[in-house]
Model the fold of this input.
Amino acid sequence: MTKTLAIALNTFKEAVRNRVLYVLLFFSVLILFGAWLASTLSIERPERIVRDLGVAAINIISGLIAVFVGIGLVYNDLDKKTIYTVVSKPISRWQFLVGKYIGLLGTILVNVLIMTWVFCTVLHLRDAFTDEATNQAIYRQLESGAYEYKGALAHLGYVATSIIGAVLKGAANILSLGFYSTPITEGLFLASVLTMLEMMVIVSFAVLFSSFSTPTLSAFLTAFVWVIGKGNQELYLLAQSLMKKAGGTTETMDASQELIYHFAKFSAHIAPNLELFNQRPQIADFAPVVVSPMALAYGIVYSAGIIAISVLIFERRNFK
Amino acid sequence: MSSSVRPPSFASARTLSQLAALALCGGAAVVMQGDYFDTFESRPELFEQRLRLLDAPVMRVMTLGFKDVYVDYMFLKAIQGLGSGWIRPEASREGMYNYFDKLSDLERDFPPLYAFGNLVVADQGKYIPGGQKLLRKGVEWNRGEWQLAQLGIYNAIWLANNPDDARWFVEMAKRMPEAPEFVLRFEEYIERRLGKYDAAFDVTVDYFVRYSEAGNEGERELLFNRLNDIFDQWNLQVVEDAMDRFFEEKGFLPQNMEELLAGDYFQRTEVATMAGFISAVEMAFGRNLTGDEAKTFIQAQSRQQVDGLPPDPKGTWYFLSSGARIEIEAKGDPSSLWPEDRYAYVASISSYREVLETQIVSNAYRIKNSIVDGKVPDDIRETYEVADGVGGHFYITPDGEYRNSTLDRLVSGGDPRLGARGRGPFPLPLEPSLNDFQNDFDWAQKKGLIDAQGNLAVDPLGRPLGELDEPAE
Done:
């Protein structure tokens, strides 16, 4: 276990040195602030828009980190020949691979938490900088009923305290594991937990593909699994509706319909169902977000299965 | 060898040629882009493109679990498009409808999509049935959203003129616990619009009893005013029914109320009256009746049989406006007109009072200004002192105040027509004329509107009677 954790720690350190990670983080911050901006364009329910876009952005950026950081996971060690140093030590291949997996997962966990913190901060800022709140803070009402500007210093003070307050409240949302939340940040921590479960599955595929192919092919395959996994449930429903329309038999379907039907059925049984981790509709509608035992078990068991396959392949791999 | 790895200097011919190529390509791109945007308005297909959305099941697959984000994006895009593409004449109405229909298939529980879709499709695109379909769908999928039902009622009544549709939305609103009372009270309004004044009356009494028991005085007052309107229109309908019979028999419109009262055009009918209602309420509460018992009692006791001209609930009477009748006849064969247009000249003094007051308010300001500008009242009498449509006239007092002789009589509490109730006989003709009161008679004679015997020198539209004999072109 110590060996695995040592590999994991090393992988984490290696990943945080990856510039791609910072580029993606930078874009995530831009998107999260952009969600606030986009919500101002809506004539109704801007809270839905900002929460929806923000949670989706965290999910997508996490997926991209998993794909682009995960693909070079094993390949880099092979390319730089560092794998020889590692395998020559008393460490099994499975420990190496599992360590890599945990390390990358840890990297993504940290990133998801950072993005969630930034997002909660954005939402708290949004609450603090409403016209009503700002006006109340920077104007005082005189006895005559008129309003007086408190001055630039008071204005600046309000802006500074609002920013610090939002950052601290955002941190409290994360550190309290979601137990502390305001109405606008309700359920966001649990949504991040679900994103992490989804990433467990995606990273396991990244490790799998990275264990036997090149980074480009790994990126392509991992992205492909992610896309299929996202649309899997709907694709299956589409297949069912095609079958229903065809009267319960494939014989009356045309060639393209039959192809879609078989592909959907096949992928539904093979590819992961990432819709299990999707609670964005609940986030958008301010409904309770639930991490179901089914989703939890599915995430753990599915990724463990994929990692087991990776180990099987990796243990038989010739590094020459 | 070493020169090949050294970066070329900025002044080298190679760098300059690269920069020139870049400038050329960049410049061409900017020009092309500019041309693209300059011709944006004349290319409707650019706006039309976004109207064609795929079916929801396909979109659900293609959005890869981000359907809610896609809907948000398309919703924001639609908001931005409202001021440009949506209102282009080239954008097809069905296309606009389909856009929101498909999006709402994708995300059924996002109420703003239906409300905004209705705004685009029905209000901007004038495709009312499309807007109604969206709202119906919205109500069906979002059972707590009474605002959608309210929009549906509004559209059905004022835009689509479709009472069945309005009734459906009211029924749905009634099943929504959060729906406020004012939305539910549309039920009464719809019945009134349909001419079902008895149903409208019964619904109003129901609310009246409930508010009385809850001690809600404000709402009670509002309902009193509404009852006045219901009685007014209910009674007016009795007059119109009589006119229908008259028109059916004679083939032309009645010239005045006496003509209508002369035959059996008024049949015995049941109406509710304000006097009956007040007395029924006093009796019901005197007997400590509550709830449904009180409601049923008031509904029954307020009604009475009327076998002639029904009373105007506001205390005056109905008359036929000759000026309006002439205008209606000028439209052609009255039988080709809708009854509501054909009988638009049936008026009540209470409604006419509003007309008089509006005229006074609109002219009083101009008259004051004229006096400030140095004109004495005599200079402006010609312009503002005219006959009204109910046998009175407007006049300017020496202080420059603008008044009306009919309104004076109404305000002083006098009945300007001495009360025409039931079948008559009435002390004065029911068609108001300038002969009815001495001051109006004197004024009209001085203005040359009637001769010494009181015969009209002009028609009710103010045209000299001689002109009417000229052959029409």
About this structure: Chain B is about 60% helix and 5% strand. The beta strands of chain B are 269-272, 303-306, 318-320, 346-348, 394-396, 402-404.
